[in-house]
Each structure stands twice: as C-alpha cells, then as structure tokens.
Amino acid sequence: MEKFKQFLKRKDIEISAKRYGIDALGAMAQGLFASLLIGTIISTVGEQLGIEILITIGGYAKAVTGEAMAVAIGYSLHCPPLVLFSLVAVGHAANALGGAGGPLAVLIIAVISAEFGKAVSKETKIDIIVTPLVTIILGALLSTFCAPAIGKAASAVGAAIMWATELQPFLMGIIISVIVGIALTLPISSAAICAALSLTGLAGGAALAGCCAQMVGFAVMSFKENGWGGFFAQGIGTSMLQMGNIVKKPRIWLPPIIVSAITGPLATCLFQLKMNGAAVASGMGTCGLVGQIGVYTGWINDIASGTKSAITAWDWAGLICISFLFPAVLTYIIGAGFRKIGWIKENDLKLEL
Q1: In terms of domains, do 297 and 212 share one?
Q2: Cα within 13 Å of Cα(35), Cβ side
Q3: In terms of domains, do 145 and 184 share one?
Q4: 156-190: per-residue pLDDT in tens?
Q5: Overall average pLDDT of the 14-35 stretch
Q6: Which of 13, 134, 178, 312 measures 20 to 30 Å from 165, CA to CA?
C-alpha cells in the first residue's frame, strides 16, 4: 500500500475533493467559457450586425467545446504533454455522446482518462505510443459506454429542477438563487454546475439572480473599503475574492445571501426572467456581463424559433433590476444595517488588491 501511495505521489495523482471538485471543475468552466460561451457571444454579435465572418468564427469556437473542456481539465490536473494533447479526442467523444449532459460526462471521463494517462506516462520506452494509446482508448471506451448514461442522468436532474421551478417558482426561485449564488462565491464553479445540469429557463434566471446578488452585492457593500478597484474586481470579476474574509468572519456573507433569497423569486415570479441562452451563462452572474449577454442571446433564439414575438420593455426592466439595481440597493441597505449593529466592522471586507 505504501508503494502505491508513493507511486501516486510521484505521478502527481491526488485523489481528493479539492483536485476534482474545485480545480478540475473550475478549469472545465474556463474551457466552456473559451469555447461555447465566447463562441455564442461572437455569433450573436455577428447575427445582430449582419457580419457573416463573426458567425463563422463563433461556430468554430462552439464546435470545440468538448475538446476545450477536456484540455482545461487536464491542465488543472498537471498532465504531461502527451496526456494533455490526447485529451482532445477524449473531450470530443465524451461531449458528443453525453448529449445535453455533455459537460458532466467530459468532467468525469476526462478526469479518469487523464489520471490513467499520467500513471503510464514515461513508464515505457515507447511512451509516445503507449501514453496517448491508453488515454484515448480508455476515454473513448468510457465515452461510448458511460457518457450517454451520465448525460441522461445530468439532464434528468436539470429537467427535474426546471420542472419544479415552473411548478413552484417562488420556493424554487429562493432555493436555486441561494445555492448557485453561494457556489459562485465558493472556490467551485457555479458556471460548470449550471452547464453540467443544463440549467436554463426560469431555473437559469433564478441562478443568474443568485450570482448577481453575490457579485454586485459584495462590490457595493465593500465599496467603502475597496473603492472602484474592488468594485469592478468583484462586480464584473468574481465575488470569490471575499472568501478569505468570509472564512475569518462568516456573517459578512449574510447580506448577499439574503438578497439572493429576495431576487430569486422576483426573477421567477415577477419578471419571469428566463435564461434560454447557453446554460453556462446561468452561473456567470455579472462576470464580464456574460450572464446578461446569455439572457439576450436567449431572447434572440426565442424570437428566431417563434416562441417569443419581441423583446419588451418589461424584459429589459427585469434583466436590469435583477442583475444590477436590486442587488446593489438591497445589499447596500442590509449591509449598512449590519455595520450599524456591529456585525460588519471597518476593514472586514477589505481586499488585498
């Protein structure tokens, strides 16, 4: 057993929740962003401006979604070059066969294939053949026999969440908004979770509300300590920057969480805000305004399919209120109350920027 542990250490194979649930998941979200999400944005801009070359470029980016996710995962697992490059084929197979739940299939299969590839890397004199052979064959076999089931399971969970949201928009609006918002601030990927579960529709709108409550909320609430630099770093960057302060004093997290519990049901019940763009955008919040672009892309898709006649003033009001106005105003008010009673003190929200 000791020799096996030494082997794993030598190969940098760390079987842990952090390595797979944080590092790999977070990297997968970056791969999604650098392919599907950015491709969708480029295509949408091209369609709106009538620029054909942008539509084509966006299509190229979207076409390599599985490959980008797998390579990003391999990079986070510190894969040697031959393993990393071999994951291109693995990611393509897993995403293609995983259907709507492709991202989750890619995550699971890429992790397994990468670790086995690392295990055999440089162990033989014909490494250039053995390593890619093991990585690709294992990944392709897992994709063939497991990816469809993984995809169906992820889709079923996502469909159940979306069905429950349609049935109980108030309650599910609160639950989804709070949970996904918390996930966004934690060192895990809310975007990857939404993508893995194909979380769109009203559920996607609630998820977006929770993420915006965290990002805009912390940006506004900590403006006194961090100024404009901190405002933009959190507001269009990530609220994850506050995790160090949250660990020291967890109650500073309460105002954005409370606000997410308010804006979630407002999104689902009042504005009926739906994310019908890329599911990954549901978990992006205001990061680079990707969440808002995703909602707009969904509107365009709905108009093109005939399920929506036009973008209304109420649509824009809902997007602006849920994404920016309500999180800013409500978190400021609640945060000021927390400061008044001493629950938040000076420099509790200070960032080292």
Answers
A1: yes
A2: 22
A3: no
A4: 888 899 999 999 999 999 999 999 999 888 877 78
A5: 86
A6: 312
CB of 80 within 8 A of CB of 126?
no
Average pLDDT value for the chain: 92
Q: Which two tokens stand for residue 77?
A: 């697992």
Same domain for 28 and 138: yes
Q: Supply 58's token pair.
A: 């966006």
Model pTM above 0.70: yes
Contact 273, 316 (CB under 8 A): no
Position 80, amino acid: P
pLDDT of residue 353: 62
Give 103-132 pLDDT, tens digit per residue.
889 999 999 999 999 999 999 999 999 999
Do 203 and 331 lie in one domain? The reply is: yes
Residues 173/265, Cβ–Cβ less than 8 Å: yes
pLDDT value at residue 27: 87
- What torsion, rounded to 10 degrees, do the Cα atoms 81, 36, 111, 104 define? -170
Note the residue count of the chain: 353
User: Residue 256 belongs to what domain range?
Assistant: 168-340
The answer to the question of residue 157 being in a domain is: no
| Number of domains forming the structure of the chain | 2
